[in-house]
Specification:
With 493 residues, the chain is of the alpha/beta class. The chain folds into 2 domains: 280 residues, Aldehyde Dehydrogenase, Chain A, domain 1 (3-Layer(aba) Sandwich); 188 residues, Aldehyde Dehydrogenase, Chain A, domain 2, CATH 3.40.309.10. The strands form 7 sheets. It has a 7-stranded mixed sheet with strand order 16-17-18-15-14-20-21, with helices on both faces. Helix 14 links the parallel strand 17 and strand 18. It starts with a strand and ends with a strand. The relative contact order is 0.14. The chain binds nicotinamide-adenine-dinucleotide. Nicotinamide-adenine-dinucleotide binds next to helix 9 and helix 10.
């Protein structure tokens, strides 16, 4: 049953259902610590039932081959989501604790505009087949006509984190379905309601056949492990921490499943010495947007020594006056962290930064005026050595570290001195110079002079330990396909 405004049921094989055994778990509002409601606490048995349903739907329905049906269903789901846009907005603010400001961009409106629509449109345009032309492969006079066909991978396990839950779900679901796959979605335990709502909309407002999309919420992270280990699942698409990504990859290796991983980051905000420093203050503040809980946020500010003091003074001013607090207040740039556990983790990193000798110039604790909710002050460390923990590890909180550099070569060296390679920003008065530096940085996306690379048509993902594969764009469609090469005797010429 739905729980007031919030849907609590799983979606398995086309049915909205309680968890087996009827267990539920609570979903908290991280800004108020109040219980919003309860949601089905799915078990391994529920997950296995969902996987079996997805397998059956892939193997026995026309979903994989009926492109017209897929496009229609994606657009039906798009319409259903749009019809509940304002309820979804409030729900996201309540369960994610994200400032409502973020929902007008990446948290809701941006993905709602195109995450399903673009893949739906691409179904017709996608190059499903290409000819290689005739060939006599072994030089024996047997000419063969050859083609390459793109086909769905099969059953995809979709595992989602809590920071931008609907955005990430939709940016996976659109391509997964457009390419003809079926799936089981495992939302993060901290943010289940956007996913259960999606399940209800699919069941009640679309022609998506039973079993094509299944959604299993659970308080137990390891219920998601069924998706990595089950021989009935063909691929895992995961967004989350690098540590969990490693574990999923190891578990998936038993069945040699391909894994598509969107992981952590420690991205740079690089200011070249010819930059307009006024532009740096808002870009530095991006670390506090949604309290730093974004994988692609530029969390390392690299500043030329020649302009270091000037830049630090400007950024300190920006941090000291940052509006934050109640996420429902549209004037706030930052809300709480997702949980008490996450707040402890962030505070632990702040202590580590102090112990490692970085200079704390702003924030560093729990704000006195916000005793309820999982808030941390906007925090700025300067004079940070890039080899220290706070410059190397993903903090996932409103913490910016500032590191000086000598020249462009030194900046590139520091930028690349990281296990991660997800995103980044460069500011320079000279676009060509900025592009030349961007080409030397090993990262999956880069914003130059405030440019925003985001979009359903724009591949997103990481180099190095920030991930494997790309979400969105043509690359993000192809990743959910298999490739079949076929040949038949060429007609005599
Ligand atoms: P997490 O890795 O703890 O959990 C992510 C999801 O994986 C959750 O649904 C969780 O229940 C599930 N999970 C945990 N253990 C699992 C297991 N063994 N098998 C299967 N599923 C399992 O991450 P989080 O704390 O929810 O999210 C924050 C992290 O996500 C940050 O590191 C952030 O950088 C990363 N992130 C990356 C991107 C990206 O696109 N690169 C986007 C958003 C967040």
């Amino acid at each position: 049953m739905s729980d007031g405004a919030y849907e609590r049921r799983l979606l398995i094989d086309g049915e909205l259902d309680e968890a087996s055994g009827g267990a539920t778990f609570e979903n908290l509002n991280p800004a108020t610590e109040a219980v919003l409601g309860v949601v089905a606490d799915g078990t391994r048995a529920d997950m296995e039932r969902a996987v079996a349903a997805a397998r059956r739907a892939f193997d026995t329905s026309t979903w994989a081959t009926d492109r017209e049906l897929r496009a229609r269903c994606l657009l039906q789901l798009q319409a259903a989501l749009e019809a509940e846009r304002e309820q979804i907005r409030s729900e996201l603010v309540a369960e994610v604790g994200c400032p409502v400001l973020t929902t007008y961009g990446p948290q809701l409106d941006a993905p709602l505009a195109e995450a399903l629509r673009w893949p739906a449109e691409m179904i017709e345009q996608f190059r499903w087949e290409r000819s290689l032309g005739p060939k006599d492969p072994f030089g024996m006079g047997s000419f063969t006509e050859r083609e390459v066909w793109k086909e769905p991978v099969g059953v995809v396990g979709v595992i989602v984190p809590w920071n931008f839950p609907l955005e990430i779900t939709l940016n996976k679901l659109g391509p997964v379905l457009a390419m003809g796959n079926t799936c089981v979605i495992k939302p993060a335990p901290d943010t289940p309601f956007n996913a259960t709502r999606l399940g209800r909309l699919i069941a009640e407002h679309t022609d998506i056949p039973p079993g094509v999309v299944n959604i299993v919420t659970s308080s137990d992270h390891l219920v998601g492990e069924v998706l990595s280990t089950s021989p009935l699942v063909d691929m895992v698409a995961f967004t989350g921490s690098t540590a969990t990504g490693r574990r999923i990859m190891a578990a998936a290796s038993e069945t040699l499943k391909p894994v598509f991983l969107e992981l952590g980051g420690k991205s740079i905000n690089l200011v070249l010495d010819d930059a307009d420093l006024a532009a740096v203050v808002p870009s530095a503040a991006m670390v506090c947007f949604h309290a730093g809980q974004g994988c692609a946020m530029p969390t390392r500010l690299l500043v030329p020594r020649s302009r270091y003091d000037e830049c630090v003074e400007l950024v300190t001013g920006g941090f000291a006056t940052m509006p934050y607090g109640d996420p429902t207040d549209a004037s706030n740039f930052m809300g709480p962290l997702i949980s008490a556990r996450q707040r402890e983790r962030v505070l632990g990193y702040i202590e580590q930064g102090k112990a490692e000798g970085a200079r704390l110039v702003c924030g560093g604790g729990i704000p006195e005026h916000l005793p309820t909710g999982f808030f941390v002050e906007p925090t700025l460390f300067v004079d940070v050595d890039n080899t220290t923990t706070i410059a190397q590890e993903e903090i996932f909180g409103p913490v910016l570290v500032v590191t000086p550099f000598d020249d462009d070569d030194d900046a590139v060296r520091i930028a690349n001195e990281s296990l991660y390679g997800l995103s980044g920003m460069i500011t320079s008065g000279d676009l060509d110079r900025a592009k030349a530096v961007a080409r030397r940085i090993r990262t999956g996306t880069m914003g130059i002079n405030g440019g925003i690379w985001y979009g359903a048509d724009a591949p997103f993902g990481g180099y190095k330990q920030s991930g494997i594969g790309r979400q969105c764009g043509i690359e993000g469609l192809e990743i959910f396909t298999e490739t079949k090469t076929v040949g038949w005797p060429a007609p005599p010429t």
